Amino acid sequence: MRASRPQSLTIAGTLAGLVACAMMHGAAGAADLEYVRDPAGAIQAGQTIVDARPPEECEAKSLAGARCLAAVDFLGPHHRLAAFTDIAWLLGTAGLSGSETLLVIGDDATERDFVAGLLHAMGQKQVRVLTEPATRLFSAGTLATAPGTARGMTRETVYTAPAREAAVAYADGIGARILLDGRSEDEYWGLRVRGQRGGHLPGADHLPATRLRAALARGERPGPGPDKGAVAVYGHDAYEGFAYLTLVRAGLGLDAAVYPGGWTDWAAGSRPAEALTHPDRAPAETTGPAIASGEWSTPGIAASIFVAGIILGIGFFIGRGRAA
Asked: Which of 15, 59, 148, 209 could form a disulfide with 182 if both were Cys (CB 3.0 to 4.6 A apart)?
């Protein structure tokens, strides 16, 4: 039963601990990856606008001077993340070198935050994320709009910013960190399985991205809690993980790192897990009636008699022919 599940941390308790971490560490994440909630103050001189919506939407209408850089540009089948070297080349096709201050806009919060989190991890100087949906800005008519600029087929510039190694945590280095699972409650407890296994990483606390986003939108800020040390966050895969990194880092000002493989990568191996479950396997389909060894069904007997009759009939006519 849902009510009987252990509650390792309530959202209020989790947020309290995270805010305490941010206070103890000086909110190091706020300067280079931050949310901007005031559309009027979002547009600043010298910054570059990145539109994270699908290319056809960006190229049809965006903020004036925006460059189209959608989430799908960085992902392969099943949200497989491209190699970092390929991502650096792709950023060059959008005219980015890494030294720019970016303003990321979009309609879907997860798509927008994924692009922002990935740009941050790639070493972009500063990434600001406008929380107001892009199409709502366009309809207000207060900001200049124009078709967005599609990225080129070749590099306009070379992306030279060094990646932020501290923003990425790998499987062999997350044991010493406080882990935050941003997936749904059903996935965390293994009731819903997206992958080879269900459950969560050992010791991971649960702070769903949807619930955290809603709390931040309401302006809810919990009181201080105990400092708990370095934090690593993860989602189902790289797409959800980098989006969750932005949410935790820009929303709470916490200097967190992301485990990019997420639960998909962790569950694919033999690593230990908590609340471990396995998906039900459907029984194998058969192409005909199953007959146990040593048993005959009625249709099987009838078929055998029919075949035997044909063979006897052929033999009878052959015998008569020879006798004639």
From this structure: 209
Residues 117 and 177 in one domain: no
**What is the number of domains present in the chain?**
2
**CB contact set of 307 (below 8 Å; sequence gap of 6+):** none
Three-state secondary structure along 14-41? HHHHHHHHHHHCCCCCCCCEEEECCHHH
| Same-domain status, 37 and 72 | yes
Q: Which runs of consecutive H residues, i.e. helices, occur in the chain?
A: 11-24, 55-60, 84-93, 109-121, 134-140, 185-188, 209-217, 238-252, 262-268, 298-323
Rounded Cα distance between 258 and 121, Å, is 9
Length of the chain: 324
In whole angstroms, what is the distance from residue 208 CA to residue 72 CA?
Answer: 23
Same domain (yes/no): 95, 180: no
Is 150 found in the same domain as 38?
A: yes
Q: Kindly give the confidence (pLDDT) of every residue in the chain, 324 residues in length, as a single tens digit, with 9 standing for 90 and above.
A: 333 344 444 454 555 555 444 444 444 445 799 999 998 888 888 999 999 999 999 999 999 999 999 999 999 998 999 999 999 999 999 999 999 999 999 999 999 999 999 999 999 999 999 999 999 999 988 889 999 999 999 999 999 999 999 999 999 989 889 999 999 999 999 999 998 999 999 999 999 999 999 999 998 864 443 345 689 999 999 999 999 999 999 999 888 999 999 999 999 988 999 999 998 875 555 554 443 444 444 445 455 545 455 554 555 444 555 444
Query: Closest Cα to residue 14, out of 159, 220, 169?
Result: 220
Residue 138 domain flag = yes
User: How many other β-carbons are positioned within 10 Å of the β-carbon of residue 136?
Assistant: 10
DSSP state, residue 108: S
Domain enclosing residue 193, as ranges: 168-277
* CA-to-CA separations, 291 to 282, 285, 299, 302, 305, in angstroms, rounded: 20, 14, 11, 15, 17
